[in-house]
Amino acid sequence: MNALLLKWNQVSLVQRIFIGIIAGIVLALALPNATGISIFGTLFVSALKAVAPVLVLLLVMTAISQHKKGRQTNMKSILALYGVSTFLAGLLAVIASFVFPVTLSLVTGASDLTPPDGIVEVLKTLLFNVVDNPVSALMNANYIGILTWAILLGFALKNAHDSTKNLFSNFSDAVSQIVKWVISLAPLGIMGLVFDSITANGLSSLQDYGKLLLVLIGCMLFMALVVNPLIVYLNIRRNPYPLVLHCLKESGITAFFTRSSAANIPVNMSLCEEMKLDKDTYSVSIPLGATINMAGAAITISVLTLAAVHTVGIDVDFGTALILSILSAVAAAGASGVAGGSLLLIPLACSIFGIPNDVAIQVVGVGFIIGVLQDSCETALNSSSDLLFTATAEYAKKRKEGKEFMILTTRKSA
């Protein structure tokens, strides 16, 4: 048994995850009634979500408290990359929706949803998350609130005794070790998630929305494989694809199946450590990216909104649609503070075209039908981009300073 475990641990984590995917598919087809298998996926996602808030609080607080005066981080560059990427994603979705217009067969059954009344409400929710009670923020995984408290406590502890700082650093290392243990269980968790997805949702319900899915997923793939690499190249002046594909493979696959940017925070943190990125930077940029770096959400909002526009027969000029790309970028950044995420922001976007709320809610219903693939691809794009742009900003800084740098894209066996 020990020899078998040793050989298993020598296989790379990505290969083990693929084995988990295949096992999940086989079990779903062979034993569809063995519903107990799906508990492995639920436990895996729950474990990641449980450890992520504590990890973020301790890492950010420790990094800031031990930050040396005069040492520069790359947060300004990373925030710029997040903003540019999210806006371009919304713009790409608008262009694709004009080139490949989609109409919908509207459904009912989503009348109990409560979308925000306007962009002011989205931003207000975001502000209230900033001043949330720290215990409440940890319990509800409110990462804006967690980041706020971590930053404040970090600055308050800058003048603390070294022994106090070391205590928090030791706690941070301990939680990081727990994260590594949880991530090592990813193949088993992914197996459960794949089993649950196939047996509970199936793919038959997606057939009627094939064209819509093609536009949505096509935009996300174009963003991940064309636009993001172009952004990376303009910053590091090197072939971007080794880094881009590494981030998609290592971070995107896990995010695809967990369908949670928050759950993928520990995965991205671990990858940043393995890539030897600056801890002072990634301990803030990764959890912040899980909150505001929402290129996938911007695509979802823009595509489904313009699908509603085409369905009800509204003529829209490109200038008005361009406003939609800006609105979708801003709204997507605040999506984490709204119950239901990006889909519940669709009525907000629809309102600028005068589409009635009852029609917009039906579009949200369509979003839930295709959510099996839409949400998975959206999360994979969002979360892998957090890692991608954190690494890009650091490599770009070294390039500008004339320093040699190596893009580390080989993951060690977990």
Describe the structure.
- The protein has 414 residues and is mainly alpha-helical.
- Helices cover 73% and strands 0% of the residues.
- The chain has helices spanning 2-10, 13-30, 39-65, 75-99, 119-130, 134-139, 143-156, 162-184, 186-200, 210-236, 241-258, 265-274, 279-292, 295-312, 318-333, 346-351, 357-369, 371-400.
- The model is unreliable at 108-113 and 336-340 (pLDDT under 50).
- Involved in the import of serine and threonine into the cell, with the concomitant import of sodium (symport system).
Distance between the termini: 18 Å
Reported for the largest beta sheet, the result is:
none
Rough shape? globular
Q: Can you give the helix content as a percent range?
A: over 70%
Query: How do the SSEs run, as a string of H and E?
Result: HHHHHHHHHHHHHHHHHH
The number of strands is 0
By helix and strand content, what is the structural category?
mainly alpha
Task: Sum this structure up briefly.
The chain is mainly alpha-helical. The protein has 18 helices and no strands.
List keywords for this structure.
single chain; 414 residues; mainly alpha; 18 helices; globular; transport; Na-dicarboxylate_symporter; cell membrane; Na:dicarbo_symporter_sf
